[in-house]
């Protein structure tokens, strides 16, 4: 993805990545030894979401915790009648609003970076959640610039989420990962992955959605140089 950016964007991206490396605490878990390769691969991808935008550096986030591979999280879930039970879930990445941490599986981070065209990118996905949290709500709407933009965002993303739900229910193939049909927050994270990794198709098949994301991210990845094959 980096190779497709202009020289000016590459320089800006490296600057943002440097700030993230300074400001965030990177920690290895389950035997992963934290090293520059891991830090830089995460920070540089996260910095893609900051390009051209006048914004803070994922202000709610303090730590990035990296596991070697998918990990099993033990999560307290509320069952019924005030009884809490522990459930186990296999995860590749995770973050939540008040956690101040973001958890990633290193093999999935590398796979996401290695193929910039498959529409799957764990780092973009999890850091998009962090942007969503910035206004204090987990609702798939990051801070927007005006009431008009917020109305248009709600209208377009709401319709697109419904369309994805219908397609997912009927088993139709979709450009957006059907996981995005889960809720508005997952929809925004999945749409972000598609926007940066399958921009031309997203613009062709979902022009209004592409336009909302273009306006928010202040980037037009459909016009990026194609990679030499
Ligand atoms: Zn998610």
Number of helices: 8
Per DSSP E runs of 2 or more residues, the count of β-strands stands at 6
Distance between the termini: 13 Å
Major sheet summary line:
4 strands, mixed
The pLDDT mean sits at 91
Which term fits the overall shape?
globular
Which regions have little confidence, pLDDT < 50, spanning 5+ residues?
Answer: 78-83
Oligomer: single chain
Strand order of the largest sheet: 1-2-6-5
| Share of residues in helices | 40-55%
Structural class: alpha/beta
- Strand share of the residues? 5-15%
- Round the Cα radius of gyration to an integer and report it: 18 Å
Bound molecules: zinc ion
H/E series: HEHEEEEEHHHHHH
Q: What's the layout of helices and strands?
A:
Layout lengths: L6 H17 L1 E4 L7 H12 L15 E5 L3 E8 L5 E8 L1 E3 L5 E5 H9 L7 H12 L13 H24 L13 H14 L1 H7 L1 H11 L12
Parallel strand pairs: 1-2, 2-6
Antiparallel strand pairs: 3-4, 5-6
Helix pairs in contact: 1-2, 2-3, 4-6, 6-7, 7-8
The protein binds zinc ion.
